[in-house]
Amino acid sequence: MGFAELAAAVSNAGGLGTITALTQKTPGDLANEISKCRDLTENPFAVNLTFLPSLATPDYPGYVKAIIDGGVKIVETAGRNPQQVMPYLKDAGIKVIHKCTSVRHSLKAQEIGCDAVSVDGFECGGHPGEDDIPNFILLPRAADELEIPFVASGGMADGRSLVAAMALGADGMNMGTRFIATKEAPVHENVKQALLAASELDTKLVMRPLRNTERVLKNNAAIRLLEKERALGEKLTIDDVIDEVAGVYPKVMLDGEMEAGVWSCGMVAGLIHDIPTCAELVARIMSEARSILEKRMQQVG
């Protein structure tokens, strides 16, 4: 959940914390969240702006204006092609990182002027695209094709993840699910405990027939949704699954109603075994990465 508290904690720990624009109901709310984040950190932070099919189209021009007026200098875009907002962001001197689930989409992002991409493997929570390519293949393919920097996303949790991502060509890594299981994450304790209890086998892919695939934590709502998909087949519409997907996040993330609906979770849940602070997590990742590199270099040498 990309609120100011978590974004600032990640940035203070040495990462790039990110506020998710659409968790704010209005552009005005986003402006307030950006201001709040500035009060909590002196370090850079980003704002994510996602363009996905929705029941009501968000006020994207308003959100873009709030980002620009708030002095944010890094934006992560996701979902549909962000070309429509690129002129406004670039004119404001904003660096744009586009989240992609394929090499072809990454190349398109490069073509339209994105400064970097976040390459999401099939392991990721949320929307992994429709190609089903895991990071062990996707990252080196991206490295072969791209001229702009990219970070690895999906399945990232620790120092091993960082070293592996960089060995496969990435310039860094992006973590979503892992940061939910931190002390600063503004989510209900039930959510954090669910991540601790989950294994890599405890996610499901839903909405595949709608070509809006989402990886979610397995719960009764996910099972219900999958049963609807099987029963309705090609007749399935978004209206058929509305009870499982609409308005779910406040109920789950804030109220701790774990069966209220489906919620995004990566396979990386199998690598989550504690709830540290963001500073502890980032420091541990860097220490693990250095240790791995030192030991492996000795073995290679």
What this model shows, in words?
With 301 residues, the protein is α/β, with parallel strands linked by helices. It has a domain at 4-183: TIM Barrel (Alpha-Beta Barrel), CATH 3.20.20.70. Helix content is 43%, strand content 14%. It has 13 helices and 9 strands. The chain has helices spanning 4-12, 27-40, 60-69, 86-91, 103-111, 135-145, 159-167, 177-180, 189-197, 220-232, 242-245, 248-254, 278-300; strands spanning 17-20, 45-51, 74-79, 95-100, 116-120, 150-153, 173-174, 203-206, 214-217. The chain has a 7-stranded parallel β-sheet. Helix 7 crosses helix 13. The chain is globular. The model has no long low-confidence stretch (mean pLDDT 95).
The CATH topology name of one domain reads TIM Barrel
In the sheet with the most strands, the strands line up as 1-2-3-4-5-6-7
C-alpha Rg, in Å? 19 Å
Structure summary, number of beta strands? 9
N-to-C span: 43 Å
CATH class of one domain: Alpha Beta
What is the makeup of the main sheet? 7 strands, parallel
Class from helix and strand fractions: alpha/beta
* Annotation field: number of helices: 13
At CATH's second level, what is the architecture of one domain?
Alpha-Beta Barrel
Low-pLDDT residue intervals, each spanning 5 or more residues: none
Name of the CATH homologous superfamily of one domain: Aldolase class I
Q: Determine the strand fraction and express it as a percent band.
A: 5-15%
* Overall spatial form: globular
Seen as an oligomer or otherwise, the chain set is single chain
